[in-house]
Amino acid sequence: xxxxxxxxxxxxxxxxxxxxxxxxxxxxxxxxxxxxxxxxxxxxxxxxxxxxxxxxxxxxxxxxxxxxxxxxxxxxxxxxxxxxxxxxxxxxxxxxxxxxxxxxxxxxxxxxxxxxxxxxxxxxxxxxxxxxxxxxxxxxxxxxxxxxxxxxxxxxxxxxxxxxxxxxxxxxxxxxxxxxxxxxxxxxxxxxxxxxxxxxxxxxxxxxxxxxxxxxxxxxxxx
Amino acid sequence: xxxxxxxxxxxxxxxxxxxxxxxxxxxxxxxxxxxxxxxxxxxxxxxxxxxxxxxxxxxxxxxxxxxxxxxxxxxxxxxxxxxxxxxxxxxxxxxxxxxxxxxxxxxxxxxxxxxxxxxxxxxxxxxxxxxxxxxxxxxxxxxxxxxxxxxxxx
Lengths: 223, 154
Fold this sequence. Notes:
Number of helices of chain A: 9
Domain HPt (chain B): 38-143
Protein name (chain B): Histidine-containing phosphotransfer protein
Keywords (chain B): Cytokinin signaling pathway, Phosphoprotein, Two-component regulatory system
InterPro entries (chain B): AHP1-5/YPD1, HPT_dom_sf, Sig_transdc_His_kin_Hpt_dom
Strand content of chain B: under 5%
Helix content of chain A: 40-55%
Function (chain B): Functions as a two-component phosphorelay mediators between cytokinin sensor histidine kinases and response regulators (B-type ARRs). Plays an important role in propagating cytokinin signal transduction.
Shape of chain A: globular
Oligomer: heterodimer
Shape of chain B: elongated
């Protein structure tokens, strides 16, 4: 996999269970990510800088009081949480103009195909079955790189003197256009990005997790 | 016992836990997350698991002991226990929880009581074994040795 040597990716992890937060935090750290953990969807939104209007909870506004200095490259959230579920959080993020480009990944200990497809249709990039493994997290890098690449392309677009304002580029298209310029990305990553833009295929990939593969396949520890 | 013998004992002991199905490969995943920057990760997480589980089993005993059992209270507890035992690789506890949940769904109080006993049994077993494992590790470290990695020949 290509090495991201510049700034680290920063992931926001959401889970109501302390135990699960500790696990996902360690997994992400081990995958060279910076991690912030919160125990609820509403705290996640607060952290992002989205304030829920007290009177009308359906209205989300970017809070003028919370100055969001931290750039979040990915949100990973548990599905089953009291109050705001992971699915609710996903919806709120995707409905917000400011944050809808942040990739969201859902985790659940239950393999419910209807749940998985609902999340993917709502815009989740991946659906991980718990317990999440280190190998699962390698799937995150392409999604996080997408936002970094997009930001960089937006930056260079602004630097060019252009009288015509560019129309908003579809996320998937932007990735495919930019990719050939970056030789660090290996073909494996290309496949992951292309296939993950086809959500139905992603769902199938998710369902056939290593539950069906022999458990002890990837043990490589030795004395 | 010298250091090499202690290390061999630890390896054999760990292997036996896998062979008996008390632990599964998820425990190895935990060990992979431990390194110089987080040298106590496994014992920290397992301790959290013990604390959580003690509390849950207590709550379950109370809930199932009620005149009228509220399965809406019972099921989430079992779900949580299933999740955390699965995350640390406590295979038998997890499997017992799966059976437990099925009977919760059927609202079968008798069977749930039996399931709770089964879960407790498996839990105390893995708790006991892991505490022994950590003691063996501590002895090795105290003697200035390194914890050997587990070699599995499946």
